Amino acid sequence: xxxxxxxxxxxxxxxxxxxxxxxxxxxxxxxxxxxxxxxxxxxxxxxxxxxxxxxxxxxxxxxxxxxxxxxxxxxxxxxxxxxxxxxxxxxxxxxxxxxxxxxxxxxxxxxxxxxxxxxxxxxxxxxxxxxxxxxxxxxxxxxxxxxxxxxxxxxxxxxxxxxxxxxxxxxxxxxxxxxxxxxxxxxxxxxxxxxxxxxxxxxxxxxxxxxxxxxxxxxxxxxxxxxxxxxxxxxxxxxxxxxxxxxxxxxxxxxxxxxxxxxxxxxxxxxxxxxxxxxxxxxxxxxxxxx
Length: 291
Ligand SMILES: NC(=O)c1ccc[n+]([C@@H]2O[C@H](COP(=O)([O-])OP(=O)(O)OC[C@H]3O[C@@H](n4cnc5c(N)ncnc54)[C@H](OP(=O)(O)O)[C@@H]3O)[C@@H](O)[C@H]2O)c1
Description:
alpha/beta; Rossmann fold; N-(1-d-carboxylethyl)-l-norvaline Dehydrogenase, domain 2; 11 helices; 56% helix; elongated; binds NADP nicotinamide-adenine-dinucleotide phosphate
């Protein structure tokens, strides 16, 4: 079985290594984190691996995973490049950075890639259970991408290739889809509190509105699920509300205006496609009549 070394073993590193270990895909070998305690705890969770306290103690491996925070990827790549470790395949797990973050290793003959899983890893425990079916964006050197495609597919990921120059935009999509939701919810709840909604109603409001929104978007798609003043084209209401929000919180007011612009664009695009579908069906009716 191919061997896997880990540098960084937090939520993502532990989740992936545990799944590979459980599926008998990689032998998890050496695990390096910032502290001996966390490396030992990671090995316990993964169910395999030897905690090490420095790069020099790490043995050769077929594949290396660099699952450290984005800001520490280049620095750790440079440290590994400066060590005696022979060149191998390596990948990092960032969505926003491409494999050029590993340039120091590439210069030493390492085959570098990136693999980003589109899942919110709130904890290794929950992510391990939620992982099957997760899309995984692969980028970088071809032979490492092929190795990763097989490895991620084996633990239930749905892999696709992404161009290096598109990673930032791709990751911004994930930020819109998931990271901004808690921000919007926190802003909504602060506005309700400031306007006198009783605190004991907030948990129920949160659950009901989020649940309905998710159900509608999933069933109908985003354009058809859009409701509210922008969807009705009520520009006067949008403007009045934007002023009220800005008066309460200028940053929330700016966000309200920007999101209302996008909501109007979505509502208009939906109306335009309905009109085009109606004119196509009229043209169809007309041509069938004329036949
Ligand atoms: N969390 C997500 O939802 C998610 C989703 C997809 C992709 N990612 C990507 O996955 C990567 C890892 O994220 P994560 O959420 O797993 O991070 P994390 O839970 O914070 O774990 C980071 C790991 O790296 C170690 N570490 C932290 N700073 C370091 C440094 N300066 N040098 C060396 N090691 C360091 C930590 O050591 P200690 O254990 O000793 O603290 C820990 O083991 C990132 O590139 C992130 O963008 C995250």
